[in-house]
Every structure is written in structure tokens, then in C-alpha cells.
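Bumping my old thread because nobody answered last time. Still need a sequence for this structure:
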């Protein structure tokens, strides 16, 4: 990258922040301190003032990224020394991944627990771990293990299919049934790996559906996934001829005029056994504000 007259005199760190707004300041400082950023072929400090005509190069190494805390507040539903249940907002990824290492639920939890930064996948433990995940657009309850052995206990509960999950979905179309069970094995689409398709060679997937309310062209559906496959509710709703509103991956449509700017899916209830006491628990969360407005518009 060549420095233009417009940014003459700007610090190296400010220049990179402007160019790579999706990366955290801590991560940029880390890369500069490692000598991965060169100015005119030489390593430089974060405060180095750039001049018009300078060249800035970034050396990409196959190393583990450093992730930093996010200041966005976490909405806690339940918390004790073993677990914490949070209400994940929509349009927030659950876990850092390529292209997004700074604005995920994990980054938010790091801020909540006072963890400034950590090497993703490194030897140092964050002290917590996501038990389940929700798609970026999906809002609702997400469990976090915060003590040794807790994650394993929850894995066993999910394997036993004893965790009771309930989703609320706004769909396109009105079904001719009140209750329906969808039992279709799912596997990644051969051409579009991000999409799950019903296929005999796929993994067993079972979802129970219930019509809560019907309107002109749209419905409110209660969905209970018995198994836990990726995109299970979304794929099964589409296979039932009722794609979720806003879910363009599975045949739904965006409609900003009606407030539908994402997948209208919310995990509103989660039932499980406490990993230490064994007592039965059921947590619930109200839909996000944007989904509430769409629901109010339907009624």
C-alpha cells in the first residue's frame, strides 16, 4: 500500500485502523510489534509518522490470531460459578472465525470476564467455553461453561438429546396443519457447503413444529429440534414449504419495509439439568426488539 498525500503525517497505527476497521487495535499493535508491518521495507513503531510516497507492507504468517475483548454489554439470563446463560443478540457471530475476530459473543464475554486479549487456539485458557452455538442472525439463549468438566457434562446431555430447545420463527406461507413432525436426514449441499439439504445419506434430524398463529401470507411457528444438526430448524422449515422470513439461504426473503432484515428465528427456551446439582432448569428469553416489531406488525 502506498501512502497518499491525504494521510501524510498520520501514524502507522491510525493508517492501519482506517484500512482494516474490522481488526482490533490490540491485534494491529501485536502485528506491528512482531515486525509483520514494514514501512519502506523496514519494521516500524505504532507511532511512526507516515510520509507521502511511503510503502506499507503486511507480512502474513500462518499463526494463531490474537482476539481482544469487546466492550458491548452481555445480557445475562442466569449465572452461577459453573455456568452462565446469555441472550445472544442478532447479527452477532457466536465464535471468532476467519474475517471476524473482534465483534463476536466470545469477544463480548471476554469483556464481561475482564480478559483483555488471548491467542485463539493457544495454550492459555479463557476460563469459559460456549456449550451451544447460534447462527449469526439467530437471537436467543446460549449456554457458557465456566468451570472444569462442565462442558463435558453438557456434551453428554446433548448426545442423550435431553436438552430441550424451543425456537420461535416467523415464516413465509401458512401451513395446512397445526402440528407436524419433520424427520429428514441432513447433509451439506454438494455445491453450496454452507447449505444443509435433506438427503438419505445425511445425519438423522428430527424437528417438531407447531402453528401458533397464522396471518395473511405469514405464520408464527414454534419449533423444537430434537436432534442438533447445523441449520436444522432452517432447513426443515424450508423442506416443509415454510422458509423462515429473511432466510435467503433457504428460500426466504428480506423485506426491510416490514422490518425483516435478517433471519426471523429466536431461541426462546432451553431446558437442561444443572451440570453439578443435577436439578432441572428451564430458561427463557424474549425475542429481540426487531423481531418484536415484526410480530407486532403481523398482529
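Sorry it took so long. Here it is:
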Amino acid at each position: 500500500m502506498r501512502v497518499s498525500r491525504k494521510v501524510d503525517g498520520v501514524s502507522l497505527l491510525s493508517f492501519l485502523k482506517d484500512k482494516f476497521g474490522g481488526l482490533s487495535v490490540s491485534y494491529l499493535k501485536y502485528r506491528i510489534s512482531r515486525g509483520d508491518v514494514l514501512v519502506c521495507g523496514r519494521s516500524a513503531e505504532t507511532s511512526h509518522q507516515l510520509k507521502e510516497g511511503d510503502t506499507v507492507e503486511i507480512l502474513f504468517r500462518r499463526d494463531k490470531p490474537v482476539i481482544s475483548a469487546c466492550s458491548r454489554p452481555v445480557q445475562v439470563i442466569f449465572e452461577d460459578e459453573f455456568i452462565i446463560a446469555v441472550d445472544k443478540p442478532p447479527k452477532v457471530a457466536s465464535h471468532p472465525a476467519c474475517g471476524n475476530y473482534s465483534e463476536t459473543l466470545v469477544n463480548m464475554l471476554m469483556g464481561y470476564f475482564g480478559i483483555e486479549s488471548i491467542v485463539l487456539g493457544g495454550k492459555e485458557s479463557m476460563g469459559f467455553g460456549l456449550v451451544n452455538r447460534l447462527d449469526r442472525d439467530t437471537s436467543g439463549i446460549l449456554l457458557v461453561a465456566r468451570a472444569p468438566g462442565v462442558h463435558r457434562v453438557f456434551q453428554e446431555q446433548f448426545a442423550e438429546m435431553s436438552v430441550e430447545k424451543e425456537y420461535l420463527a416467523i415464516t413465509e406461507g401458512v401451513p395446512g396443519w397445526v402440528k407436524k413432525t419433520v424427520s429428514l436426514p441432513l447433509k451439506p449441499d454438494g455445491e453450496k457447503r454452507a447449505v444443509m439439504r435433506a438427503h438419505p445419506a445425511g445425519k438423522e434430524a428430527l424437528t417438531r413444529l407447531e402453528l401458533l398463529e397464522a396471518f395473511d401470507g405469514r405464520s408464527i411457528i414454534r419449533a423444537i429440534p430434537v436432534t442438533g444438526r447445523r441449520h436444522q430448524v432452517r432447513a426443515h422449515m424450508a423442506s416443509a414449504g415454510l422458509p423462515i422470513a429473511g432466510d435467503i439461504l433457504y428460500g426466504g426473503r428480506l423485506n426491510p419495509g416490514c422490518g425483516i432484515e435478517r433471519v426471523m428465528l429466536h431461541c426462546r427456551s432451553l431446558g437442561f439439568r444443572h451440570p453439578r446439582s443435577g436439578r432441572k432448569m428451564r430458561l427463557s428469553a424474549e425475542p429481540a426488539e426487531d423481531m418484536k416489531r415484526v410480530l407486532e406488525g403481523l398482529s
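The helical segments are 12-19, 25-33, 105-113, 150-159, 232-239, 289-298. Let me know if any region looks off to you.
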